[in-house]
Task: inverse folding
């Protein structure tokens, strides 16, 4: 009976949070036309700038994911209704998704301009 409770608790803990790890976040669509006026050099500089900031964004997303999961587990033990209203790492996920989408748009322009 104790195992059933533990497995049930673990399932609820995992199933309720909408927080995601950085590796699970897809790029948000950014139109390539945003960067169509950029020269090859400008595109490469912008890509390097975004690539330099992406690891920090991934670190923040993963840190918030871990914090959210820990808080959710505590909420289930101490006050379970609080676990139902947790928002996860939504803002951080969006920032990372936009950065990845911008990179895709830049790469599309680099390819179309044969840079």
Result:
């Amino acid at each position: 009976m104790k195992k059933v409770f533990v497995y049930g608790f673990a399932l609820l803990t995992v199933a309720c949070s909408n927080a995601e790890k950085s590796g699970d976040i897809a790029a948000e669509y950014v139109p390539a036309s945003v960067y169509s006026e950029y020269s090859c050099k400008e595109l490469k500089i912008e890509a390097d700038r975004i690539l330099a900031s992406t690891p920090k964004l991934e670190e923040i997303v993963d840190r918030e994911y871990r914090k959210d999961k820990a808080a959710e587990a505590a909420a289930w033990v101490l006050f379970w209704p609080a676990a139902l209203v947790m928002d996860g790492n939504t803002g951080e996920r969006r920032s990372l998704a936009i950065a990845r989408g911008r990179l895709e748009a830049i790469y599309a322009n680099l390819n179309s301009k044969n840079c």
In short: The CA atoms of residues 27 and 97 lie 4 Å apart. The chain is about 70% helix and 0% strand.
